[in-house]
Write a structure and sequence with these properties.
binds D-MYO-inositol-1-phosphate; globular; binds calcium ion; 5-stranded mixed β-sheet; 264 residues; single chain; 2 domains; 15 strands; Fructose-1,6-Bisphosphatase, Chain A, domain 1; alpha+beta; 8-stranded mixed β-sheet; 8 helices; 37% helix; D-Maltodextrin-Binding Protein, domain 2
């Protein structure tokens, strides 16, 4: 295994073990509301510290972009970290949570780790070398028809002005797909697209730390990713649609007229 991937996996497992132990002792954690519907707990912060300490000990010159502590150090080689993706699930004791770590080198994603501590599932990818789940190769699904697809999504709690257009999109998919899911951890949702469990996924306004690792998993598993106009600017807007190449085009036909920019 790539030495940097080995260290990132170690960091993700340490954070995951902390989260898995803490979910049974929720009475012992502190919870603060950063903004409406956006919580941070003492475990989000401890998990992030553990990850950064592990990575920094091995690679002291690398920089960080982490959800709770922001940007630090080098902008050339940057670890992008969501230490606990699914805080709303966590504070409710729902065991659907990912630890997400990606490495970006000179603007390009090179490594990805998403770890589910409750199923002990480890999703990994190295640029140009494919993607794995627990060491086995993974590929996006073969489903080519919306009518047979199971799609994942996230609800746009932070983009209230987009509710009507989102609901219209949801409604169109609701009538025309096999089923839909909203599990509540974007990094795991993306890992599920990469592993072919979800045929596609879309969400409004995700942050770079929600997206970075999942994006590389999906690309290395043969999937396509775009913003709601179908372009590659999804890190700027955080708006994302992803699926295998055929279904991606089908999903965009629904999403672009409702959520896309009319000028594009
Ligand atoms: C959230 C989760 C959720 C998504 C939200 C994210 P957090 O991340 O990924 O699935 O719908 O937009 O903010 O706050 O639990 O790390
Ligand atoms: Ca997140
Ligand atoms: Ca988080």
């Amino acid at each position: 295994m790539d030495p940097k991937l080995t260290v990132a996996v170690d960091a993700a497992r340490k954070a995951g073990n902390l989260i898995a132990r803490a979910i049974d002792r929720l009475d012992k954690i502190t919870i603060n509301e950063k903004s409406p519907h956006d919580f941070v707990t003492s475990i989000d912060i401890q998990a992030e510290e553990l990850i950064i300490e592990t990575l920094r000990t091995a690679y002291p010159d690398d920089g960080f972009l982490a959800e709770e502590s922001g940007k630090q150090g080098s902008e050339e080689t940057v670890w992008i970290i969501d230490p606990l993706d699914g805080t709303m699930n966590f504070v409710h004791g729902v065991p659907q949570i990912g630890v997400s770590i990606a490495l970006q080198e000179r603007g390009k994603l090179s490594l990805a780790v998403v770890y589910d501590p409750f199923r002990n599932e480890l999703f990994t990818a190295c640029r140009g070398k494919g993607a794995q789940v627990n060491g086995n190769r993974m590929r996006v699904s073969q489903c080519h028809q919306l009518s047979e697809a199971m799609l994942g999504t996230g609800f746009p709690y932070h983009a209230k002005e987009q509710f009507p257009a989102y609901i219209d999109t949801f409604s169109e998919f609701f009538y025309n797909t096999a089923s839909m899911r909203r599990p509540g951890s974007a990094s795991l949702d993306l890992a599920y697209v990469a592993s072919g469990r979800f045929d596609g996924f879309w969400e409004i306004g995700l942050a770079p730390w929600d997206l970075a690792a999942g994006v590389l998993l999906i690309k290395e598993a043969g999937g396509l990713i775009g913003d709601f106009n179908g372009s590659e600017d999804y890190f700027q807007s955080g708006n994302i649609v992803t699926a295998n190449p055929k279904l991606f085009r089908e999903m965009l036909k629904v999403i672009k007229p409702r959520l896309g920019d009319p000028a594009k």
